Amino acid sequence: MTDLLSPPATAADRAESAPPALRIADLAVEFGEGDHATRVVDGVTLELHAGRTFALVGESGSGKSITASTVLGLLPRDAHVVSGSITVGGEEIAGASEARLRRYRGSHVGMIFQNPLASLDPSFRIGSQLREIIAHHRPDTRRPQQDDIALTWLENVGITDAERVLKSYPHELSGGMRQRVMIALASLSQPAVLIADEPTTALDAVIQKQILDLLQTVVKESGGALLIITHDFGVVSYVADDIAVMKDGRIVETGERRVVLQNPQHDYTRTLIAAVPGIGARFPLEAAGLPVRLGAAVEAGTDAVSPRTAVEPADAPPTLLRLDGVSREFHVGGIGTGVTRRVFRAVDDVSFDVARGEVFGLIGASGSGKSTLARVIGGLLPATGGRVEFDGVDLTAASANRVRALRPRFQFIFQDASSSLNPRIPVGEQIARPVRRFGKATGASEARATVARVLDLVGLPADYARRYPHELSGGQRQRIGIARALALEPELLILDEPTSALDVSTQATIINLLLDLREQLDLTYLFIGHNLSIIEFVCDRIGVLDAGRLVDLFPARELFSDERDQVTRTLLDAILPVE
Amino acid sequence: DQNGGTGEPVAGGDFVSALYLEPLALDPHRQGYWETYRVSRNLFEGLTKEDTSGETDPTEILPSLATEWSVDDSGTVWDFTLRDDATFHDGTPFDAEALDKNVRRISDESYEFYDEKSAANLAVWFGGLISGEVVDDTHYRFTFDKPFLGFPRILAQSMATLNIGNPAVWEEYGNDGFAEHPDGTGPYTFVSRTTGDRIVLEKNEDYWGDEPNLDSLTFRIIPNNQTRLAALLSGEVDQISYVQPDDVDTLEEQGFQVPEGTGASLLYLSFNFRNPDIKDERVRQALIHGLDREKLTAEVYNGYAQPQYSFQPPGNEAYDPEARDFEYDPEKAEELLAEAGYTADKPLSFTIVIDVANQNAAEWLQAQYKEIGVETEIVSLDRTSYIARAYSDAEPTDGLTFDEYGGSYAEWLYQGYNGLTAKGLDTADFPEISAALDAALTTDDESQRIPLWQAAEKLVRENAVVIPIANLTRYYALSPDVEGFVWPATNWYDLTSVWIDG
Amino acid sequence: MGTLKHVLLRLVNLVPVLLIVSVLTFAIGHLTQGDPIEAQYARTHTPEQIEAIRVAYGLDLPLWEQYLRWLRSLFVEGGGLSIVQNQPVFAILWPNFLNTLILTAAGVVVCAVFGILIGTLAGTGHGRLIDRASMFIVQVGSNLSVYWFGLVLIWIFALQLQWLPVSGMYSRRGGGFGDLLLHLILPSISAALISMLVLARFTRIGIIQERQSDHFRTFRSQGIGPIRLYGRHVGRNILPPVVNIIGLEIGTLITGVVFVESVFNWPGIGTQVLNAVNGKDYPLIQGGVVLVALCYLVVNLATDVTVDVLNPRLKRT
Amino acid sequence: MVLQTAKGEALTIVRGPRARRRRSSRRIHGQLALAVALLVLIVGATLLAPWIAPHDPLAADGALKYLPVGSPDHLLGTDEQGRDILSRLLYGGQTSLLIAIAAVAASTVLGSVLALIAGFSNDNIAGVIMRTIDILFAFPVIIAAVALAAILGPGTTVVIAAIVFSATPYVARIVFAEVKLQRGKDYVEAALSLGAGFWSVLFREVLPNVAAPIFIYASGLVGIMIVFSSSLSALGIGVQPPTPDWGRMISEGAKVIISGNIVPALLPGLVVLLVALAFNWLGDGLRDVLDPHRRRIRS
Ligand SMILES: Nc1ncnc2c1ncn2[C@@H]1O[C@H](COP(=O)(O)OP(=O)(O)OP(=O)(O)O)[C@@H](O)[C@H]1O
Ligand SMILES: Nc1ncnc2c1ncn2[C@@H]1O[C@H](COP(=O)(O)OP(=O)(O)OP(=O)(O)O)[C@@H](O)[C@H]1O
Ligand SMILES: [Mg+2]
Ligand SMILES: [Mg+2]
Ligand code: NI
After folding, report:
1. Ligand 2 pocket residue status of A180, Cβ below 6 Å
2. Is any ligand 1 atom within 6 A of the Cβ of residue A475?
3. Which residue among B49, B163, B281, B383 is least packed, with the fewest CB closer than 10 Å?
4. Does B233 touch chain D (CB under 8 A)?
5. Selecting from 3.40.50.10860, 1.20.1730.10, 3.90.79.10, 1.10.3720.10, what CATH number does the domain C91-278 have?
6. d(Cα C194, Cα C115) in Å, to the nearest integer?
7. What is the pTM of this model?
């Protein structure tokens, strides 16, 4: 292991003296076999050194996650390593036996998986799962000690009511909480190499920062290295020392962060960097009378429409969506759960209007009730109080058939794209079904054409229609979700963190697409997100939720105004600037 | 010597017999089925009994609880002298008073323990009882409304007859409770019963007659033929009843005893008189002519059965081994059918209804009748549905059903013939049979009794109202070390003389 | 609703369910042809005499009256008198019922132990020889006729090898727990055969699915060894379906053990009911069905509740 | 410092798991092919029985009982009535296969539909459905079978009805458990938000997700149910004689096992086993076909 006390050496020195903490060389991974084989990782080589943080960025679906899971021999069943070498602390572990790999797992190399929601065992309380891991790595500890360690680590990842969380089952926690538990679980053994696959996508800015600090502390303390896979250039700027850019299974560019970011060599890297939204990026564009679009897409020149200001109508647009004192309560606890039964208010008396053609942003800390509110609006969860009016119709009171008839007019894009897709149906069919159901396409071929068109809109090739959800990367699934909603050409689109799983260039494409569509079709969006730059960029007005209540509501322009609520300001302060 | 026994009887030992049917209630007046009687005769006795030593065929009637009996000239008044040394298992002596309570239980509605169920069961023979009187402690008199010369033999039967139970028991436990505490005068006393499993009896130390050899008798109920066989082969039981013809060779090869004999029983085919085709006597005759019973017994029963031509079974006091109905003659059969108007284009056709146990025979029969141009269809049913269909709900297309029964008493003919009425036989269609049966049943001339029954049987035969087919000749199997077992010409056997060697 | 309330509701539900079962049994028994008196007397008695016996047994009453009489007898007269045996139905059935429970319990043990064992071997060795071999055994086994299989077992183990007894629960001079166990071996294996293999299949599939799950991967990525992975995580997560299948199989064992009882002459309720069916002994059939149904329903309820309790996610609305 | 791709460096070639997997995948296809081939062969042979059977399946000859397998004129020997076992097997398949397939199909469809509806209805409807199923379940099979025989009259329909009666609740409970697992899933919610109606969610969204277990279960039932029909035959509720039928052959053959004549029951048992195996493989194969995880992307 690297000696913490030794003075920082140059990269070249290190390469000669100590073996790298992790070294992947010429790795190739394929899915399937024979003629059907698809190579998803191709000749990837990278090296992690103690005390440094390595960021792996790149296109969604470029093979980042696959590369990461190869390290510990945790590839999906139908994938296999074709060739390559993987050394940890100088020892070769590619092709090692399970028993040998097991000695490295967790203790030498820790891994935080991309989809944290299903990564905890649903049958055990959090406390029990954490204790198991603690006991495994530190067999000398007794239960009270283990509880202490678990509590400490939950607090480390910013969970305030750690006592309760320890007693909860995974499904009783919000997505962000589960992600943080997963981070605690993987970090508490303080491995020499920590691989974090998009560890903060589901988190708000405040927690995100805290987590990133934590991850770095962990590897610093263990004298190890951090490999972070991310789409967020704010994150890259904040933590990374080195960076590699992946596309189509290959590393197209790599080097020290500053060098690569400031002087990108490869075209793709340049496109990527151009697509990064910075805070306040919108206003110069507006001022210059340019269409409000992100990065590369602007250069490519969407033949879009006139500047945005032109579309803004003079008089107040009609209201499309009206929320009036909406509340949603959950019963939690009860017999058999070990927790006393109580009522929990996830959404508390929220009222606001959204005008036709408007983009309404909804932000707030993780667990503040954004998704719940969105689901209430989308008619997926009945409200326990208040009214939701869509185009004058009270959805909370309307009959099921009435609501169904309205369905094509308001659509929902789920936060967790993976589970909202039917695993047994090809994605194309999943897009086509509602299209045919609501008569948006008459024949089968017309439906196929629609599918191809919307896939193209979200930047996926038409033949992906035949794939099943599990054959897609996280970002690709997210895009299918978007395509499926768009295909219905709804008037109101509720987007629950639609781009958090996407790389910045794809994100840019999607955002620009949404903006184009809005202008062409006069769509209305309710946009939920954590990424404040994106929110500011696309939204006209922004609402801030805190513990289920709407605490702030303002035009996007006034994001930094002094009148902002304390909650909003905390979020703003945590924004990670992009270099 | 069919028992292969040479040594002297040995006292002691526990004997296990496997029955193929669950016996009914152990109540002397409510019993039915031979398997019940094979158990209960060890507990209860009648006034008379049949000779089970195998020496006589038909069996002789011997004294049991009565030492002698006589009938008056009218044939209606029977006097019995009772033994004075018999006691019930609980120690109460058997006397005319006890007998009287037995009689009143089944015939006297004024008796507190008059039992409707028993009365109905015994009505066949005791319906004509006018009175039963206690003459003195050891003498008892029955008076019937008509001459009833067959009475002593009827008294030695298993069901619908008057075996003697201990009145103290039903007076204490009630009529329904008797079966839980069966108590009689027999050589064994009741120990326990688990329905579906076993009945255990043990030696009655105070038995009035010859002391039995065996200490205890266990009757296990093993309805599955294969399991029963396996239980014998493995030594779990010493004896089984209802040996399957297919298993005889196996048993003998392994040294088990499968004594040869003829019980007083008969397999027969009953006609369904509700079928208009069958009503035609020529059709019935043709169906008898068309049946080769030699071949049937050889092929279906592996030769372990005797062809039967008379409705009185072997072992019956009125059985005539020479009796023949219509001999096997397929041409004659075809002729008769042609006469009755059946041709190759329009053949006689009907259904053979069987319960699942007789499938082989039915299939054989189907092939046989095909040879005389008769088309048959087989309907094979579970037992319940079979009984329902065979006895009360016959379809008009049903032709034949399989039955098995018989008794050693001549009066069986009357019962058997009555049984046919359940199949639509109208006794009015055969007045001369009814007359002949009546004459035999109520004759007051002892010397004419058997000839009269035989004459009646001849009429039954000639009118072709039933087709007797076979009598099984291998019915019981015993393990090699059982000695002294005799298969008499009746449907049960006596265990008091049996012993286990070694 | 909470779990407790739920259990209570289900318990209350038992009443109408049992009532329907009883009406059905009664209706089926009485609406189909034939009756016990005929079965017993048809060959010896004239129709008039038979009718007289029927009256003596109360079989001439209107159906509804017979039903009500019977319903009452369930509570006050031990299920009424068996027509054939002339004894209170439950007095006859109770010992048989206990015997069936003994056989069922043994069957469940065999089923659970071997089913889970085979399923685990196959599931953990998924795709390997052991998987294929176990699944082949499962497929062969589940397609054997219990009847045939039982007889073959008898032929081999009782007759040829003479290791085990053929039939019943006790030997001649029987008694003793060891004797009972010996008698239980063959019947319980036969009884459990199919259930065991069903369980093996589900266990296997459960394990395979769990192995592909994200949380399995999580703990694997932490270096947790296979014993803990399977023993704790996979085990706990497949527990609900396994319990569900076991419960289901207990139910089928209770209601369907009749063929095994017949082959091994196990004096259980199945044989008893079959006998009653053959003799059309209504009170006995009805009593048997009600007893078996009650037992099944209780097992079923217990299974459902257990599965619910095992599922931390379950929140009823 | 990160190295660029350095080809030819200590490369570890990992082969083991891949080779195994490839074999297993080929095995799956082989298995499916074998299953189909077997079924075609068996079904074909039974359909062609009138032409290819060497003897009349009903022709009994008392002189030729229990001929051993391999006898010159009777390849598979003769049964307890001296009938040719091979011919009986050939003819017997017609009834047995019809019964098993029809009954299993009916109970699978019925059970699955009930379970799907129960799984996605409100508590009351689900309660009624599941309690009805409990009633069917709680009823001892033989009683039901005897009653059905009494109501419908003996014959093939009773066997089918009895199988449906006993298998439907079983299928329903198993499918219900599967459906319950699907109930809370997000894709169901997504489908609802895309305007899918109740039936559409049930049959177009949920059904594909429970189809695999249903297939496996149903295919496993085929053999079990032929065997079950043999138990019914032993009770006298079954295919009517003289029609040959595998179930009846097994139950009749079982009557002579203890006396050492194992063949007459063994042969039909083996044929049923073969059919059952073929259906099992077919079920597994279908499962694999249905399982997107096993599908290869056609590029
Ligand atoms: N089971 C599978 N079968 C076939 N292809 C797969 C499978 N799983 C993933 N892939 C493909 O492998 C490629 C790499 O996937 P991977 O998950 O590594 O992407 P990623 O770089 O992590 O993307 P994202 O940023 O969207 O998470 C993708 O193109 C994906 O479609
Ligand atoms: N079905 C449920 N039962 C009980 N509590 C729930 C349920 N669904 C959500 N909650 C709780 O409601 C609160 C709000 O959850 P919600 O998913 O709306 O948060 P969010 O703002 O979308 O968070 P994130 O940014 O992490 O997605 C959380 O505390 C969560 O634990
Ligand atoms: Mg990824
Ligand atoms: Mg959310
Ligand atoms: Ni509740």
Report:
1. no
2. yes
3. B281
4. yes
5. 1.10.3720.10
6. 10
7. 0.82
